[in-house]
Amino acid sequence: MDFLDANESDLEAGRRALMGGGVGGDLRMVVDHGAGASLWDKAGHEYIDCTSQAWSLNVGYCHPKVVAAVGEQIKYFTHIRTSFDTVPKLLLAKRLSELGPGRLKKVSYSLTGSDANEGAMKLALRNRPGDLFVTLWDGYHGRTLSTLNASWPHPDNRFKAWSGPVLRVPQAYCYRCPFEMSYPECRLFCVRFAKRTIQKAASEPPVALMMEPIQGNGGMIDFPADYYPAVRAMCDELDMLLIWDEIQTGFGRVGDWFAANVYKTVPDILIIGKGLGGGFPIFGMLLRDDLAPFHPGDHSFTFAHFPVSMTAALATIEVIEKEGLLERSRRLGAEITRRLNAMKAKYELIGDVRGPGLMIGVELVRSQKTKEPAFEETHRFIAEGLKRGVIFGEAKYSKLGNVVKIKPPLVISEAQVERVLTVFEEIVREISR
Prior knowledge:
Order of helices and strands: HEEEHHHEHEHEHEHEHEEHHEEHEEEH
Shape: globular
Largest sheet: 7 strands, mixed
Number of domains: 2
Strand order of the largest sheet: 4-10-9-8-7-5-6
Number of strands: 15
Number of helices: 13
CATH topology of the largest domain: Aspartate Aminotransferase, domain 2
Strand content: 15-25%
Radius of gyration: 22 Å
CATH class of the largest domain: Alpha Beta
Helix content: 25-40%
């Protein structure tokens, strides 16, 4: 079948056949091809993609080394079920165990980020008594029945009865401190409050605390450097496992292999995915090597050991290393946030600029003094960016967020960075009028 010759009536019929209900805007754009940090639609328009397609293309669209590795591998086989070993599976497990911080030396594979997080919950249940999990306000961990309830409260959540018990505690969202305190004078009151809440309000000793080191879907919220070891110490004191969801932060996005390296804090379970596959689906977790493993059948999926994706992952890791993308992420991220902070001094619309690396969030407000969220303005910002050839991300969905995301492929060029910043300021200036 020649997809390039598909006619518009067939495409429209397919569009009508889709049920809907997915996340994201109703973009009437049919993608034609992508390369590096850009994609082109069927009409030939180019867009600089500051979403990396859901933060997944850390090495860019169709990186030649990834494509070549996959093309060579599929000459031998495509699907092999989990009962059999393959060279890509074993080499990737070896490589991931080498990259894993601290004692995170065991590897488990999954199909999606949601079931990887759910797998971490299962493993925690195998290693601790009880059923209760602790999560942070504004955290996001997926859309399966269990992970949906562990994430920030979704509107119209019809599925709560099929989820396990979760206790949510405030996070160190310093720009909007839930206790109306200021850092560092607060001395991390949020951690002390979380500990007290768990001790006083939890129905039973929790199994684990599950968190993103930087909250992506909830608003690109990063925390003070000393928050991370404080949370680690709290979990140790309360005999809770610490699970880090690094699906978005891993493999160069924050300027290192993992945020655990950036913040010098090692969890007991670390969730991986998205940027690992170079555009191919692969997820899983790195586990502390002394944890009790799954029982047979606990967590197995037909395509979880997909050798095509594992070959792509091996090539992606090699590209990140050989092209110096960790350093590039740090350098370009620092330059972008410096320029955005300079804009913040000029425009009332920009309330806060957050990083690190190329995991950048800009919170838009109607007043820097009152911090009133600029929800409608943010939604308009995304639409204006698309008109100008830049795809910006938006925190949360259904206009529930007020944060613009800038998370391009790590291979984005300096000229493209300049164009993104020019467009960003153009839109801020226009909306500010």
